[in-house]
């Protein structure tokens, strides 16, 4: 079951750069993987020119240090342990993943015909140089680093992000999982939003809500939300190309940033409530 919510009504804080149409390619920034490729393949069918810029993923060591600085070493180790342990469950989720791909007609295969560039990091000097050369009409982010304020300030086109969670209630990581844990499956969904200096705090462009099955887990939530979110991604990008974005700031709902569950909390929730 899929429910797509169109968003309308610009606010006073809407950046001026979202209001004018422009020519140029749509550039997708990503660290790669099957889920981003689903969105890339959906977008390529609706935009005149698409270019992919891939950045290198952060090292596990850097991720651990960043998590520890924010949340403490115990929580950081617990979250990294969940990420490591969950990989062992991926083979068990393959059948469900294949069913999701079939259900939504998604294509997770990289298209070798698309132009692809690579940078070490979106916050390196190479990334703005690439954008200066490409002169994109829209920059679309999916599964990549958070842009530093200085990087974001140097980008003149609309910058959109695909988030596998409903904003502002489930900002950050594993939005679908936490919606289930909180008993809030009505907000199991995905968001496309404008990018600002915060974590998934920019104006909402579109959202989609879906109903997970009992076979879905931490391994398939992002895939399900990505496959279900292709329509809102395409709509947001085509609206941006036409200068027709109408972002909404969801100020009435509670806002919270979430992180990966620690290994012990993930196992306890799975064993006691069947939410994995």
Structural key phrases:
276 residues, 10 strands, 36% helix, alpha/beta, Rossmann fold, two-stranded parallel sheet
What does this structure look like?
This protein is an alpha/beta fold. The protein has a single domain, classed as Rossmann fold (3-Layer(aba) Sandwich). It is built from ten helices and ten strands. It has helices at 34-44, 60-71, 73-86, 94-104, 126-134, 149-153, 175-181, 221-228, 230-241, 263-273, and strands spanning 2-6, 26-30, 50-55, 115-119, 138-141, 159-163, 171-172, 189-194, 204-210, 257-258. It has an eight-stranded mixed β-sheet with strand order 1-9-8-6-5-2-3-4, sandwiched between helices. Strands 7-10 form a two-stranded parallel ribbon. Helix 4 packs parallel to helix 8 (221-228). The longest helix is centred in the first third of the chain and has 14 residues, at 73-86. The radius of gyration is 18 Å and the shape is globular. Mean pLDDT is 90; it is low at 6-18.
Compact summary:
The protein has 276 residues and is an alpha/beta fold. It is built from ten helices and ten strands.
So what's the oligomer here?
Answer: single chain
Helix content: 25-40%
Side-by-side strand order of the widest sheet: 1-9-8-6-5-2-3-4
Q: How much β-strand is present in the residues?
A: 15-25%
How many separate domains?
Answer: 1
Spell out the helices and strands N to C: EEHEHHHEHEHEEHEEHHEH
CATH-assigned fold name: Rossmann fold
Shape: globular
The largest sheet, given as strand count, sense and whether it forms a barrel, is: 8 strands, mixed
Mean pLDDT: 90
Low-confidence stretches: 6-18
Number of strands: 10
Instruction: Determine and state the CATH class.
Output: Alpha Beta
Calculate the terminal CA-CA distance, rounded to whole Å: 21 Å
Using only CA atoms, what is the Rg? 18 Å
Put simply, the count of helices is 10
SS content category: alpha/beta
CATH architecture assignment: 3-Layer(aba) Sandwich
């Amino acid at each position: 079951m899929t429910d797509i919510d169109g968003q309308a009504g610009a606010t006073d804080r809407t950046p001026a750069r979202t209001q004018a149409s422009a020519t140029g390619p749509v550039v997708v920034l990503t660290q790669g993987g099957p889920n981003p490729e689903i969105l890339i393949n959906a977008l390529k069918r609706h935009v005149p020119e698409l270019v992919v810029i891939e950045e290198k993923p952060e090292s596990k060591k850097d991720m651990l240090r960043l998590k520890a600085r924010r949340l403490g070493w115990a929580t950081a180790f617990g979250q990294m342990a969940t990420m490591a342990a969950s990989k062992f469950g991926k083979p068990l989720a393959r059948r469900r993943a294949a069913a999701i791909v079939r259900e939504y007609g998604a294509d997770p295969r990289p298209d070798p015909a698309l132009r692809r560039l690579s940078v070490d990091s979106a916050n390196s000097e190479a990334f703005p140089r690439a954008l200066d050369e490409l002169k994109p009409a829209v920059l679309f982010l999916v599964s990549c680093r958070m842009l530093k304020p200085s990087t974001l300030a140097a980008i003149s086109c609309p910058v959109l992000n695909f988030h596998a969670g409903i904003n502002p209630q489930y900002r950050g990581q594993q939005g679908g999982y936490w919606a289930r844990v909180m008993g809030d499956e009505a907000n199991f969904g995905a968001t496309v939003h404008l990018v600002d200096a915060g974590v998934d705090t920019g104006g909402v462009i579109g959202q989609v809500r879906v109903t997970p099955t009992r076979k879905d887990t931490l391994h398939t939530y992002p895939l399900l939300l990505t496959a279900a979110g292709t329509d809102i991604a395409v709509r947001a990008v085509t609206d941006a190309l036409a200068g027709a974005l109408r972002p909404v700031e969801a100020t009435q709902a509670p806002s919270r940033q979430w992180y990966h569950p620690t290994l012990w909390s993930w196992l306890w929730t799975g064993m006691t409530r069947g939410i994995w």
